[in-house]
Write a structure and sequence with these properties.
CATH architecture of the largest domain: 3-Layer(aba) Sandwich
Order of helices and strands: EHEHEHEHHHEHEHEEEEHEH
Number of strands: 11
Bound molecules: guanine
CATH topology of the largest domain: Rossmann fold
Strand order of the largest sheet: 1-11-8-7-5-6
Helix content: 40-55%
CATH superfamily of the largest domain: NAD(P)-binding Rossmann-like Domain
Largest sheet: 6 strands, parallel
Radius of gyration: 19 Å
Length: 292
């Protein structure tokens, strides 16, 4: 039976470390990191995320600025708000919650965020920096996944990693991060031939496809470390719903060396890493060292 990697505890620990550093920053430099979150429209899942981000930002001792705009907001109005946030010295991180309503060009909006305040790491300059292995802002979900992998395995050098899913938010940045750690990296996707066979080769399996329980236990190499990024809500057969990952947990846990559960695995790490990125950027923008 696999070791269960407790993302909830890992994230709580990371958040308390961040809160400790924020307190030092306040005391020694009179600097309070500030995170602005912009939500356009009323998507219920996005509202839940935004509320939770605001709450955890304040709990870490940072300032949280929430901007809720109605679904009919024009692209020009949104770009105007981002310009003001880019110029605001109290704001060190800007996150525009995705997806945006269809009439707004997401690429144009993301790339209008100042490169140093792009705490999602989605700006083309940060994407480019990651792809050449330079220091930039790393997207939160892959960063949280990497932190857990390194905590569990130590040195990743030479390990075979497969990432199932090629999204810009998770799959591609995860591949770049693992390559930087000197893994041998495969990115698999819907056209991959013999996906189970490819997965069985991997010491590290990162599932980020968004398909409930697609990856089965007999696809997992015995002893492998499995990171399940999927969060899928499915029918529980009793008139309600439940959350499952992209990996069939019970069968995979019987074979893997270690595995992240859903919920309580990668999920809580995403917001913790958002706070981490905001702290890093507040220090960078103000030219002060991140407290030890
Ligand atoms: N929507 C779902 N996940 C994310 C995320 O990580 N960042 C942003 N900006 N929007 C999201």
């Amino acid at each position: 039976m696999a070791t269960i990697i407790d993302g909830k505890a890992f994230a709580a620990n990371l958040r308390s470390e961040i809160a400790r550093k924020v307190a030092i920053l306040k005391q020694q430099h009179d600097l309070v990191p500030g995170l602005a979150v912009v939500l356009v429209g009323e998507d219920p899942a996005s509202q839940v995320y935004v509320r939770s981000k605001g709450k955890q930002t304040v709990e870490a001792g940072m300032n949280s600025y929430e901007h809720r705009l109605d679904a009919g907001t024009s692209q020009a109005e949104l770009l105007g708000l981002i310009d003001r946030l880019n110029a605001d010295p109290e704001v060190h991180g800007i996150l525009v919650q995705l997806p945006l309503p269809g009439h707004i060009d997401e690429e144009a909006v993301i790339n209008s965020i100042s490169v140093d305040k792009d705490v999602d790491g989605f700006h083309l300059s940060n994407v480019g920096k990651l792809s050449i292995g330079a220091d930039g802002i790393v997207p939160c979900t892959p960063l949280g996944s990497l932190m857990m992998l390194k905590d569990h395995l130590g040195d990743l050098s030479g390990k075979k990693a497969i990432i199932v899913g090629r999204s810009n938010i998770v799959g591609k940045p995860m591949a770049a991060l693992l390559l930087k750690e000197s893994c041998t990296v495969t990115i698999a996707h819907s056209r991959t031939q013999d996906l189970p066979g490819e997965c069985r080769e991997a010491d590290i399996l990162v599932a980020a496809v968004g398909r409930p329980e697609m990856i089965k236990g007999d696809w997992v190499k015995p002893g492998a470390t499995v990171i399940d990024v999927g969060i899928n809500r499915i029918d529980n057969g009793e008139g309600g719903t439940r959350l499952v990952g992209d990996v069939e947990f019970d069968s995979a846990a019987a074979v893997a060396g270690a595995i992240t559960p859903v919920p309580g695995g990668v999920g809580p790490m995403t917001i913790a890493c958002l706070l981490y990125n905001t702290l890093q950027q507040a220090c960078r923008i103000n030219d002060v060292e991140v407290p030890e």
